[in-house]
Amino acid sequence: MLEKESTQSLGISPIDVTLNFDEMSLQHNTDVTFKIVTDDPVNNPAHYNHKGVEAIAAIEASMTDEEFQGYLKGNCMKYLWRYKYKGKPVEDLKKAQWYLEKLIASVENV
C-alpha cells in the first residue's frame, strides 16, 4: 500500500531513501513523503485496513472514551490470556503491549 502524506508537486531533484524494518519511506526533498507499509501482524495487519480506514479508528469513533478504553483493556487481557496457547507467544505479547500502549495514550488524553 502506498500512502501519500503530502500533495505538493514533484521536481527533478534527487530522492533520499530511508529504510527501517517496519516501513520504507521515500522522501523527495522534504516536500513529499511516501510510505510503503509492510504487513506487520502486530502494528499494521493488512486485514484490519479497508479502503484506507483502520479498524481501530472506526471502533474508536463508534464509542465513548470509556467504552473504547474498556475495549482496549479487554483486548490486552485477551492476548495475555492466550499467548501460551496459539503458537506465537511473542507475537501475542506484542499485541497485548500494543493495546496497552493505546490504552495508556487514551487515558492520558482524557
Topology readout:
Blueprint: E1 2-4, E2 16-19, E3 23-28, E4 32-37, E5 49-50, E6 53-54, H1 55-61, H2 65-82, H3 89-109
Structure in words:
- The chain is built from three helices and six strands, in the order ββββββααα.
- It has helices at residues 55-61, 65-82, 89-109; strands spanning 2-4, 16-19, 23-28, 32-37, 49-50, 53-54.
- The two termini are 32 Å apart.
- A hairpin with a 2-residue loop joins strand 5 (49-50) and strand 6.
- The chain has two domains: 2-37, no CATH class; 47-109.
- Helices cover 42% and strands 21% of the residues.
- The protein has 110 residues and is α+β, with helices and mostly antiparallel strands.
- Helix 2 (65-82) packs antiparallel against helix 3 (89-109).
Q: Between the first and last Cα atoms, what is the distance in angstroms?
A: 32 Å
Please report which band the strand proportion falls in: under 5%, 5-15%, 15-25%, 25-35%, 35-45% or over 45%: 15-25%
Q: What share of residues is helical?
A: 40-55%
Main beta-sheet annotation: 4 strands, antiparallel
Give the number of domains.
2
* Structural class computed from helices and strand pairing: alpha+beta
Number of helices: 3
Q: How many beta-strand elements?
A: 6
Order of helices and strands: EEEEEEHHH
- By oligomeric state, this entry counts as single chain
Shape: globular
Rg over CA atoms, rounded to whole Å, is 17 Å
On the 0 to 100 scale, the average pLDDT is 76
Strand order of the largest sheet: 1-4-3-2
Low-confidence stretches: 1-29
